[in-house]
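Reopening this ticket.

The earlier resolution said the output was attached, but the attachment link was broken on my side. Pasting everything inline this time so it's all in one place.
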Amino acid sequence: MPRGASPKREHEFEKLKHQFQHDHRYSGREEEVAARIVNKQRSEAGETKSSAGKSASAAGSGRSSTRNTPHTSATSRRSAKAHTGNPRLSVKEYAGLTISEVTSRLASLSLSQIRRLRDYELAHKHRKGMLEKLNRKLVH
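Inline output:
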């Protein structure tokens, strides 16, 4: 964390880092990812030197500061990919769906289709809640 970060942000950083270690997410990059998340929160809240001018201009234009960048963000590239769908998966546009949206469709799937969804989830998104629901469905 940069010097000058508030105790609240320091606590958020430590909490995220330990959560990532506990969940075995971002192996070897826990600190980096936690710092990026907290720094983004600081920037959006206007707590950084570089964000002070951006937040005012973004608020005045009614657009977020991330939209003012000339390059396509990684998030928008990922969301564009998410909507193409995977032909092997039985749920259309799975990568772009929330856990509750996927859960509502699980009843109509076979065990092999659920296994494919679980394998995809493990390889790509690794959402703990989704994996628990898929595993429960496979056991019952």
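Reporter confirms the inline version is readable. Residues 55-84 have pLDDT under 50 and may be disordered. The CA atoms of residues 79 and 118 lie 20 Å apart.
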